[in-house]
């Protein structure tokens, strides 16, 4: 009786954006419960007239109906005798599933009698505790309609894009008709059968006086009129955000004993649907362009290369061996590599990712491996540091085909985007943005795992200008030699310490090259760490979820921002000033942003940032900072041996930066986005360090590349003067 009083019904949990848009669902059974008042009388009448005409006259079991069904079955006219209440008992308590059968499943006739007794007893209990109206409501909320649709609301939306209170008699009859066999009478797969069954239900409705003869005729001559747009357009399937939220909530769910897939939670995230859309559009636009560039560079050549540019001959074989099916094939063919390779070479029908949508094709497994290995991917995240709210989460180019999240799961070499932590360490330990170092060769001796070693970094073009440069100029221009000298002065252990202090959680190998981004980190960590500077020196614990309610709207948990003071306001502001050097200093590596006029519709707008490229152009990064937001973007192939081959094609300024530029153009173009261009904040406290030290103008720059070791061509640069209102010129 206690189970009957509190029946367990799996209800999907829903994830919403900050502005109330449905982002996804978690469900084992796709279900959205409704109240009795929200169910159309057409549905109730169709159900009763077809499934249980004497519903209001019995107490859970209709023995008269059961007896007549037995007689009819004996005569060859097989029909059910279960009442709506009995069917509810089956739906709620799974009385016929294997785990409910025991020994009696082996005794044919006796088995059926026991089933029926179970259903009768349960039905009597249900009728004892609930009104007829409540029974109908529970029935409509539990009954399956095929295509992983449980409950009437899910069904009406799926098949007719309507709520349950809006369906016509014909639509109601179509849905109720499916109950006889959700597969056999599925209106999508078998429209003719469904139409015939629908008209039978309409006939029952006329027979019992629920519709007139005229209404019967009118409705039977109506086509099915399915509207499947809800199925195509909703966001209930898998996505990067949906999985990020699940991971983010993991500890809370375990601590509070909730199951996302059955407890009907409503989860409200920090994601801004406008910004998310603009980010996805920018990623789609620029990644298509980058992929085309990649294909043009390599042509028919294999892009999987070692550090010397030599093709990796066993690349495909190793990729095969990583597949789960390889072990099965080894067992099936007893290690015969000829037969295994024959399997991989055999063409098969499959659906593959394309930049213009999924397409059907016939392709061998080997060609599929080669095809996917060449595809570039990305990870992008945007945060509002003052609130800690994550506004954008783009885990990759397509979740269905690449469900590895490149924001939080993937970790790659940060390249020059890690250099700011060396400059931060210096500023917080006695240096100023105006202190000068000379761009010259440097050799640093250190101990690596107990063994003495020497590190002699090159600049990107393997040249040294021997020019004296301020720290701001050196960081804006991304000069390797000066960064290395600075790291030696402050100590690489301290650089690691400051990176961790700002929010980098990945283990960092403490070596001189740490400042040039030799360690693997995630986009999530980098965005979090950079946010410390815009948040007055307060490290944040980023928020992805603001609150969780139950299915009735009752508040279960509210999440608030947690911060920790790790830098002074002066040092945090000076770092923002340093980041502006990428746009304002001669040869600054962010200056490709001048090519995006939408960023400069207000002359007072200021943007700071840092490009980054790992060795051999494997990873391209851009970390962009505006007065309100911090955005991190990584671009590359999933396999590190697949990459671009020149600075012009593969540097972060040519791969990740364009995505940032296009994204912010879209944000600024929308007056309703809540984010408009403008200058960085004024100092939050007194600045005691010297920082106004304009760099000399130069006409030729040879070290503007940001990569760890890759050579670049000499390029002509027209630098932008250091002003608070930079002119719009390239």
UniProtKB/TrEMBL annotation:
**InterPro entries, from UniProt?**
Beta-lactam/transpept-like, Glyco_trans_51, Glycosyltr_51/Transpeptidase, Lysozyme-like_dom_sf, PBP_transglycosylase, PCN-bd_Tpept
Location comes to:
Cell membrane
Check the record and name the Pfam families matching this protein. Answer: Transgly (PF00912), Transpeptidase (PF00905)
Domain called Glycosyl transferase family: residue spans: 20-205
- Enumerate the UniProt keywords alphabetically: Carboxypeptidase, Cell membrane, Cell shape, Cell wall biogenesis/degradation, Glycosyltransferase, Hydrolase, Membrane, Multifunctional enzyme, Peptidoglycan synthesis, Protease, Transferase
Any single GO CC term annotated in Swiss-Prot or TrEMBL for this entry: plasma membrane
Q: GO biological process annotations for this chain's record? A: cell wall organization; peptidoglycan biosynthetic process; proteolysis; regulation of cell shape
One function term, GO molecular function aspect:
peptidoglycan glycosyltransferase activity
> Which reaction(s) are listed as its catalytic activity?
[GlcNAc-(1->4)-Mur2Ac(oyl-L-Ala-gamma-D-Glu-L-Lys-D-Ala-D-Ala)](n)-di-trans,octa-cis-undecaprenyl diphosphate + beta-D-GlcNAc-(1->4)-Mur2Ac(oyl-L-Ala-gamma-D-Glu-L-Lys-D-Ala-D-Ala)-di-trans,octa-cis-undecaprenyl diphosphate = [GlcNAc-(1->4)-Mur2Ac(oyl-L-Ala-gamma-D-Glu-L-Lys-D-Ala-D-Ala)](n+1)-di-trans,octa-cis-undecaprenyl diphosphate + di-trans,octa-cis-undecaprenyl diphosphate + H(+); Preferential cleavage: (Ac)2-L-Lys-D-Ala-|-D-Ala. Also transpeptidation of peptidyl-alanyl moieties that are N-acyl substituents of D-alanine
Enumerate the spans annotated as Penicillin-binding protein transpeptidase domain: 381-627
Q: In which pathway does it act?
A: Cell wall biogenesis; peptidoglycan biosynthesis
Query: How far does the signal peptide extend, from start to end residue?
Result: none
Query: What family is reported?
Result: In the N-terminal section; belongs to the glycosyltransferase 51 family. In the C-terminal section; belongs to the transpeptidase family.
UniProt-recorded name of the protein: Uncharacterized protein
Organism whose genome encodes this protein: Mucilaginibacter polytrichastri
């Amino acid at each position: 009786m206690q189970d009957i009083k509190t029946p367990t019904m799996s209800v999907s949990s829903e994830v919403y954006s900050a502005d109330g848009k449905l982002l996804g669902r978690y469900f084992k059974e796709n279900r959205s419960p409704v109240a009795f008042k929200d169910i159309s009388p057409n549905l109730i009448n169709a159900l009763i007239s077809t499934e249980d005409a004497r519903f209001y006259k019995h107490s859970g079991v209709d023995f008269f109906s059961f007896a007549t069904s037995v007689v009819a079955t004996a005569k060859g006219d097989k029909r059910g005798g279960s009442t709506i209440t009995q069917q509810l008992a089956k739906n709620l308590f799974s009385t016929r599933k294997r785990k409910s059968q025991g020994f009696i499943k082996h005794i044919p006739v006796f088995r059926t009698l026991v089933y029926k007794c179970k259903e009768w007893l349960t039905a009597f209990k249900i009728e004892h505790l609930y009104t007829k109206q409540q029974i109908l409501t529970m029935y409509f909320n539990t009954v399956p309609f095929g295509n992983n649709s449980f409950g009437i609301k899910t069904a009406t939306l799926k098949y007719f894009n309507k709520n349950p209170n809006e369906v016509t008699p014909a639509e109601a009859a179509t849905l109720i008709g499916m109950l006889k066999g959700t597969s056999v009478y599925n209106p999508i797969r078998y429209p003719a059968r469904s139409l015939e069954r629908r008209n039978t239900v309409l006939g029952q409705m006329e027979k019992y006086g629920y519709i007139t003869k005229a209404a019967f005729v009118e409705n039977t001559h109506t086509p099915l009129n399915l509207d499947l747009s809800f199925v195509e357009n909703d966001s209930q399937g898998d996505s990067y955000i949906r999985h990020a939220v699940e991971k983010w909530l993991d500890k809370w769910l375990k601590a509070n004993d909730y199951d996302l897939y059955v407890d009907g939670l409503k989860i409200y995230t920090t994601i801004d649907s406008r910004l998310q859309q603009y980010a996805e559009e920018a990623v789609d636009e620029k990644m298509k362009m980058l992929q085309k560039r990649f294909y043009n560079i390599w042509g028919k050549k294999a892009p999987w290369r070692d550090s010397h540019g030599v093709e990796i001959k066993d690349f495909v074989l190793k990729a095969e061996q990583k597949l789960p099916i390889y072990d099965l094939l080894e067992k099936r063919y007893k290690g015969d590599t000829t037969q295994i390779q024959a399997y991989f070479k055999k063409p098969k029908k499959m659906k593959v990712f394309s930049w213009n949508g999924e397409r059907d094709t016939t392709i061998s497994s080997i060609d599929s491996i080669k095809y996917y290995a060449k595809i570039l991917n990305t990870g992008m995240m945007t945060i509002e540091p003052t609130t800690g709210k994550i506004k954008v989460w783009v885990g990759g180019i397509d979740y269905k085909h690449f469900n590895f999240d490149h924001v939080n799961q993937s970790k790659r070499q940060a390249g020059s985007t890690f250099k700011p932590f060396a400059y931060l360490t210096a500023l917080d330990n006695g240096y100023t943005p105006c202190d000068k170092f000379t761009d010259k060769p440097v050799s640093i001796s250190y101990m690596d795992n107990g063994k003495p070693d020497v590190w002699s970094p090159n600049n990107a073009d393997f040249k040294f200008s021997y020019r004296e440069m301020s720290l701001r100029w050196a960081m804006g221009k991304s000069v390797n030699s000066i960064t290395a000298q600075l790291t030696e002065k402050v100590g690489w252990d301290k650089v690691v310490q400051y990176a961790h202090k700002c929010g980098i959680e990945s283990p960092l190998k403490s070596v001189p090259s740490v400042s040039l981004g030799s360690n693997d980190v995630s986009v999530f960590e980098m965005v979090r760490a950079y946010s410390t500077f815009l948040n007055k020196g307060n490290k944040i614990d980023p928020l992805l979820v603001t609150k969780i309610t139950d299915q009735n709207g009752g508040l279960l948990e509210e999440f608030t921002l947690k911060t920790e003071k790790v830098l002074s306001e002066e040092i945090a502001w000076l770092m923002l000033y340093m980041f502006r050097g990428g746009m304002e200093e001669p040869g600054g590596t962010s200056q490709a942003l001048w090519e995006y006029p939408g960023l400069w519709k207000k002359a007072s707008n200021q943007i700071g940032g840092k490009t980054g490229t790992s060795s051999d152009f494997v990873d391209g990064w851009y970390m962009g900072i505006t007065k309100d937001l911090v955005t991190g973007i990584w671009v590359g192939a999933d396999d590190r041996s697949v990459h671009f081959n020149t600075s012009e094609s593969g540097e972060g300024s040519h791969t990740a930066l364009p995505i940032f530029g296009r994204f912010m153009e879209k944000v600024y173009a929308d007056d309703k986005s809540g984010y408009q261009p403008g200058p960085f904040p004024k100092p939050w406290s007194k600045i005691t360090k010297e920082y106004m030290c304009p760099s000399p103008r130069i006409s030729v720059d040879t070290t503007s590349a940001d990569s760890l070791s890759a050579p670049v061509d000499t390029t002509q640069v027209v630098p932008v003067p250091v002003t608070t209102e930079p002119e719009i010129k390239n």
